[in-house]
């Protein structure tokens, strides 16, 4: 693969060119969708005027700006697989908050009722564990195969803590991640190499002025074992962090032997291997760690694992846990949670533990995922039939209840190809906003569709119908 195949710093190189589709005309259609959006959301616009007085861009978090709309819509309520904005527009939700809500918005089930009862009857936090913590560790061990567990406040929190654990055990400071991977909001993980010859830099260096990204982070290309070995050979990497397959810029799939190769190299050079299943757990109970028989030293996840409550988890192998336990019990007077930066006073609180237990017991079952997969069967088959009908050079790639649409015909084995497949610069935007204005929510920054156990066949057929209309409109048919 030449270096020109992996250049990220020129945005124009990420815009796919599709024969028969005039991108200029597509951009005009995107502009028309923006005008239609404004017509449909006058109350949200009025709310924006009020919100901008005290919130940047009128929203409480930068995540809410990632729709790249003229302004955000404001939600009135959400239930099951539907939500309503303050203008009364109803949406079928195939976004599901980019995973946290994959089991539905406040469904009428034992999980929702149990969380509410915990809040009403037993409070949020007592700064001491409950029986739920014990049950959670047993359930997680059964699902993912690692015997020891910590509970955190989010997947990002899990990432930071897992890095600290690895540093403690190895005496090394660096981490190794893959280009275009996303592992939360830790400074060490928000790094990349704009091209193969460049140094490691922070993705948004203006937020971290003066910090040397390469001091604590090395970056390799996914599926390049030679590059991984060249980095690990320096013996300064505490932990290698990776998803089973990358999900943050479309799907980047592993080549045959990739995970076995990572395990062998980490063992050889004394680096711990961490698997991040924050997104890929949608494949089923136990995620791809169980599906593919992965055996990491450390494991992390969050988002949907506690039915949408902000919870993360860290799993540890027997050897890692015993070594870490020994360090914790050495008697150092400074070895307290707060001083170590491991967790906070509200971590593993009673409400989060109850939500995690109930979700693992009721949501992480073969029956639940069978319902999710049945819905995705309809979407996958229908979308592929539409692609064939129009002769479009597009494709879908599926992992359980999550499907990724690529506006390129090839399956992606490198992150540049996956990122180009999103279709930024017109195709992605038109698909997303066309659906939004017709009552279907999709993930706004990629082309992934997620199904919950509450989606019906009718809901799924609606997505396929919109996909058919969008492709016809792209080709002006």
Q: What this model shows, in words?
A:
- There is one protein chain.
- The chain is of the alpha/beta class and 477 residues long.
- The chain folds into two domains: 214 residues, Aspartate Aminotransferase, domain 1 (Alpha-Beta Complex), CATH 3.90.1150; 253 residues, Type I PLP-dependent aspartate aminotransferase-like (Major domain) (Aspartate Aminotransferase, domain 2).
- The protein contains 15 helices and 16 strands.
- The protein has a seven-stranded mixed sheet, with helices on both faces. A four-stranded mixed sheet has the order 1-2-3-15.
- Strand 6 and strand 7 form a beta hairpin.
- The N terminus is likely disordered.
What's the layout of helices and strands?
Layout: H1 23-40, H2 42-51, E1 75-79, E2 82-85, E3 90-93, H3 110-121, H4 131-144, E4 148-152, H5 155-170, E5 174-178, E6 191-192, E7 201-202, E8 217-220, H6 225-232, E9 237-242, H7 258-269, E10 272-276, H8 287-291, E11 298-301, E12 312-316, H9 318-328, H10 337-340, H11 350-362, H12 366-390, E13 395-399, E14 402-406, H13 415-421, H14 427-436, E15 440-441, E16 448-450, H15 457-474
Parallel strand pairs: 3-15, 5-8, 5-9, 9-10, 10-11
Antiparallel strand pairs: 1-2, 2-3, 4-12, 6-7, 11-12, 13-14, 14-16
Helix pairs in contact: 1-14, 3-11, 4-11, 6-7, 12-15, 14-15
């Amino acid at each position: 693969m030449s270096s020109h195949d992996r250049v990220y710093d020129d945005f124009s190189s990420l815009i796919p060119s599709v024969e028969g589709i005039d991108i200029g005309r597509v951009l005009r259609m995107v502009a028309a969708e923006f005008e239609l959006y404004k017509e449909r959301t006058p109350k949200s616009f009025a709310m924006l005027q009020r919100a901008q007085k005290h919130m940047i861009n009128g929203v409480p978090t930068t995540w809410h700006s990632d729709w790249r709309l003229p302004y955000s819509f404001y939600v009135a309520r959400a239930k099951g697989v539907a939500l309503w904005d303050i203008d009364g527009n109803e949406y079928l939700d195939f976004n599901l908050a980019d995973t946290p809500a994959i089991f539905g918005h406040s469904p009428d089930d034992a999980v929702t009722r149990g969380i509410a009862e915990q809040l009403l009857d037993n409070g949020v936090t007592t700064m001491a564990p409950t029986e739920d913590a014990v049950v959670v560790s047993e359930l997680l061990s059964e699902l993912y195969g690692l015997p020891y567990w910590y509970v955190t406040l989010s997947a990002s929190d899990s990432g930071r803590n897992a890095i600290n654990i690895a540093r403690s055990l190895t005496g090394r400071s660096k981490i190794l991640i893959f280009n275009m991977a996303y592992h939360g909001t830790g400074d060490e993980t928000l790094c990349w190499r704009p091209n193969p010859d460049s140094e490691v830099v922070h993705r948004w260096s203006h937020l971290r002025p003066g910090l040397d990204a390469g001091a604590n982070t090395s970056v390799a290309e996914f599926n390049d074992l030679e590059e991984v070995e060249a980095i690990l050979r320096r013996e300064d990497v505490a932990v290698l962090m990776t998803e089973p397959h990358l999900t943050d810029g479309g799907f980047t799939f592993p080549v045959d032997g990739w995970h076995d190769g990572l395990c062998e190299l980490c063992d050889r050079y004394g680096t711990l291997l961490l698997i991040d299943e924050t997104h890929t757990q949608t494949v089923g109970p136990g995620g791809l760690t169980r599906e593919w028989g992965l055996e990491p030293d450390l494991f992390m996840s969050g988002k949907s694992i506690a039915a949408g409550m902000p919870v993360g988890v860290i799993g540890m192998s027997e050897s890692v846990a015993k070594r870490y336990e020994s360090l914790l019990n050495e008697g150092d007077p400074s070895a307290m949670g707060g001083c170590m930066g491991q967790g906070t006073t509200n971590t593993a609180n009673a409400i989060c533990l109850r939500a995690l237990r109930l979700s693992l017991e009721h949501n992480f079952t073969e029956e639940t995922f069978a319902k999710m997969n049945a819905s995705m069967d309809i979407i996958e088959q229908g979308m592929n039939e539409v692609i064939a009908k129009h002769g479009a050079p597009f494709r879908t790639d599926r992992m359980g209840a999550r499907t990724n649409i690529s506006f390129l015909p090839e399956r992606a084995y490198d992150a540049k190809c996956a990122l180009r497949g999103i279709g930024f610069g017109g195709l992605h935007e038109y698909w997303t906003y066309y659906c939004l204005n017709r009552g279907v929510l999709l993930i706004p920054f990629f082309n992934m569709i997620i199904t919950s156990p509450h989606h019906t066949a009718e809901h799924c057929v609606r997505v396929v119908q919109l996909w058919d209309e969008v492709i016809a409109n792209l080709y002006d048919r």
